[in-house]
Amino acid sequence: MEPEEGYVLREWRRQNVIQLEEKEKKEKELRAKDAANNITGDVPQKELREDKKYKIS
User: Fold this and answer.
1) What is the span of the domain harbouring residue 43?
2) pLDDT tens string 11-28
3) Cα angle at 57 between 46 and 41, to 5 degrees?
């Protein structure tokens, strides 16, 4: 492996780690929001959104 390839691979890994951390943060926020909705009773609205999401056009 040439030095340039090593740099590109390290940079790709670094960017991948950053993207995974952002994705995990968003998922954690969504889970917390869903948990809060379950506590407050907003579940029917969530189910309606999911129905629309999976509705076949």
Assistant:
1) 1-56
2) 999 999 999 999 999 999
3) 10
pLDDT (average), residues 6-14: 94
DSSP string over the chain: --HHHHHHHHHHHHHHHHHHHHHHHHHHHHHHHHHHHHHHT-HHHHHHHHHHHH---
Asked if 26 and 34 count as a contact pair (C-beta separation under 8 A), the reply is no
Tally the domains of the chain: 1
pTM of the full structure: 0.53
The count of C-alpha atoms lying within 13 angstroms of the C-alpha of 2, restricted to the half-sphere facing its C-beta, is 2
**Both tokens assigned to 43:** 């579940």
